[in-house]
Design brief:
heterodimer, A: mainly beta, 4-stranded antiparallel β-sheet, B: 6-stranded mixed β-sheet
Chain lengths: 114, 116
């Protein structure tokens, strides 16, 4: 299996621009998570889906952030408009079933907003 | 809300020696899962070991083992025979047991340096 795939790996954009991060989970996994990693706040959950339905979006910072999962093999995280404080590494992770099953992380997207 | 605390921002160990990384957590739940993840410079998050809170036996994975003290809410990671490839950030993480509680709550991490 190819693992969780994220694109792009690096993104540099100017403040005010729209940014779209993409994720393809591992086939057969029914949970998908978006995490953000910053020096100030560490690793924090933004939102997660089960069977393409958002379950917990309490970590989404504000209305500028939105996430969708139109089907079992694709998810997007969109920031519009972007701000310098959104600069971070964004991870997508997927998991099969509940319980102590492992969450498999993608390689992350490093976003820089200038 | 659950919290995870890693009080050691940095640790170092001589190659082939043993090192223990500390983690404490706070929860009102009786059953849950605990994890240690490794993040090398490549930034890939890699699961090292997991522990089910309802199991009294400490988990082990080759050179990695945990000391799980449920009453004390402590979950330390012991790395034996440290190798250069063990150099990384290590994150302790908590996850609840019930549906709707699948998210991982992470500690702030411990940077481990291996001294040749």
């Amino acid at each position: 299996d190819a693992g969780v795939i994220q694109s792009p790996r690096h993104e540099v954009t100017e403040m005010g621009q729209e940014v779209t991060l993409r994720c393809k989970p591992i086939s057969g996994h029914d949970y998908l998570f978006w995490y953000r990693q910053t020096m100030m706040r560490g690793l924090e959950l933004l939102i997660y889906f089960n069977n393409n339905v958002p379950i917990d979006d309490s970590g989404m910072p504000e209305d500028r952030f939105s996430a969708k999962m139109p089907n079992a093999s694709f998810s997007t995280l969109k920031i519009q408009p972007s701000e310098p404080r959104d600069s971070a590494v964004y991870f997508c992770a997927s998991q099969r079933g509940t319980g102590g099953n492992e969450q498999y992380f993608g390689p992350g997207t490093r976003l820089t907003v200038t | 809300a659950q919290t995870v605390t890693q009080s050691q921002p940095e640790m170092s160990v001589q190659e082939a020696e043993t090192v223990t990384l500390s983690c404490t957590y706070d929860t009102s739940e009786s059953d849950y899962y605990l994890f240690w993840y490794k993040q090398p410079p490549s930034r890939q998050m890699i699961l090292v070991i997991r522990q089910e809170a309802y199991k009294q036996q400490n988990a082990t994975e080759n050179r990695f083992s945990v000391n799980f003290q449920k009453a004390a809410k402590s979950f330390s990671l012991k790395i034996s025979d440290s190798q250069l490839g063990d150099a990384a950030m290590y994150f302790c993480a908590y996850r609840g047991l019930n549906f709707g509680n699948e998210k991982l709550t992470f500690g702030t991490g411990t940077r481990l340096t291996i001294i040749p």
